[in-house]
Write a structure and sequence with these properties.
The protein is mostly beta strands. It folds into 2 domains: 55 residues, Monooxygenase (Up-down Bundle), CATH 1.20.1280; 333 residues, 6 Propeller (Neuraminidase). It has 6 helices and 26 strands. InterPro entries: F-box-assoc_dom_typ1, F-box-assoc_interact_dom, F-box-like_dom_sf, F-box_dom, Gal_Oxase/kelch_b-propeller, SCF_F-box_component.
Length: 402
């Protein structure tokens, strides 16, 4: 019987299976369940997955997408454009089945998930199925921003993963300014307050991107309270890149961007091979060219940018003035094929009473343009999100669903 194979042979057989098949493996027999959660097995499995991810001649690659509050693994084929769901990521607690997820942040194969009702956080290793649910220090807030990262340690030291939660908003005339900066340490299962008095602002819809353990955001100069309500008519607010360093537990200096954005412009970030940062910029108000740059160097205190990676005028491709909405526009790039895939919605009826379609827009040089329908979007306020995914052997403490 297969369940009685020698351990080394069983490891070799099981390590050839895709991540999405591990759920079935673990329910087959007790021996395979123990083996598939063993560190030596996960290291072998992940080593093969990473080797495949670095093979730039591959036809397909995989990404994690959040669509209709569900987190799934998708296969992307850019030669014959298609984006197909290939399975749910493994979760021993069935996170993807029992809980609706509104936001996902990726760091080294771990996912920080925010529930739809914004009442709970969970850090999840989809490869091992481990989860840890995080209770708030006091409470979570609908305007919270989050980031997942880790300290820099010696090469062979276990990483110390942390979650940053912050809120810095005037929420109402009665409550005024709410400012809360907190860090959760997964090793100690504890929160602590961080003293931050920012002269910058990160808008709620901006999603941070983690690279090498740190998280980067698009940010801009904080406005005085008296003029914050007039942001639409203010045309020249300094903007920049901002990093949170999880080793020093502090925000770094303002870092330059290769453009200057105004209110209403689309600006969104993405990671490239977990080593570089990509930034997408599109002006509003009649200018429909999408521009994407990729960093040549990226550190908490310094950044430099390569020449423009891609510039695509959307108007002749779509036949109308087309701007990726500034609250959407989640994207990723394929450096070799000089192609970007941007997630958004169709440009049909935007009324909340009628469903729309989730669309992947594939854009490239020389007018290359394809659309892939990702299915109906019943909730007009639910935007499709995408992030890179590299399987991880990191062990996290498992805690049952609250």
């Amino acid at each position: 019987m297969l369940s009685n194979l020698p351990r080394d042979l069983a490891e070799e057989v099981l390590s050839r299976l895709p991540v999405t098949s591990l759920r079935g493996v673990r329910s087959t027999c007790k021996n395979w369940n123990r083996l598939s959660t063993n560190r030596s097995f996960t290291m072998k499995h992940i080593g093969k997955a990473k080797a495949a991810a670095k093979n730039y001649q591959r036809k397909e690659f995989q990404v994690v997408m959040t669509i209709q509050y569900r987190v799934c693994l998708f296969s992307v084929d850019l030669l014959n454009p298609s984006i197909e769901r290939i399975g749910k990521l493994v979760s021993l607690d069935d996170v993807a089945d029992r809980v609706e997820i509104s936001k996902v942040f990726h760091c080294d194969g771990l996912l920080l998930c925010v529930t739809k009702d914004r009442s709970s956080l969970v850090v999840w290793n989809p490869c091992s199925g481990q989860t840890t649910w995080i209770n708030p220090m006091n409470s979570y807030h609908k305007l919270d921003r989050y980031a997942l990262g880790h300290e820099k340690k010696e090469k062979y030291s276990l990483r110390s993963y942390k979650v940053l939660r912050f809120l810095d908003d005037y929420v109402s005339r009665v409550k005024g300014l709410l400012r809360e900066f907190e860090i959760y340490d997964l090793n100690s299962d504890s929160w602590k307050v961080v003293d931050v008095s920012p002269d910058w602002d990160i808008r709620y819809h901006q999603r941070g991107v983690s690279l090498m353990g740190n998280t980067y955001w698009f940010a801009h100069q904080k406005l005085p309270p008296a003029v914050q309500g007039q942001v639409r008519v203010i045309s020249d607010i300094p903007d920049f890149l901002l990093c949170f360093d999880f080793t020093t537990e502090s925000f770094g200096p303002r870092l330059p961007l290769p453009f200057h954005a105004f209110y209403g412009d689309t600006v969104t970030l993405s990671s490239v091979r977990e080593e570089h940062l990509a930034v997408l910029f599109q002006q509003c108000g009649g200018w429909y060219t999408v521009k994407i740059w990729i960093s040549s160097k990226i550190e908490p205190n310094a950044v430099s940018w390569n020449k423009l990676f891609l510039a695509v005028d959307m108007k002749p491709l779509t036949g109308l003035g087309f701007q990726f909405l500034h609250i959407g526009g989640s994207f990723f790039v394929d450096e070799k094929k000089k192609v970007a895939v941007v997630l958004d919605k169709d440009r049909g009826c935007r009324g909340k009473s009628r469903p729309t379609r989730n669309i992947a827009y594939i854009i490239g040089k020389k007018g290359y343009f394809k659309q892939v329908d990702l299915g109906e979007s019943i909730d007009a306020g639910c935007w499709p999100l995408v992030c890179s995914y590299v399987p991880s052997s990191e062990q996290i403490k498992q805690v049952a669903l609250p």
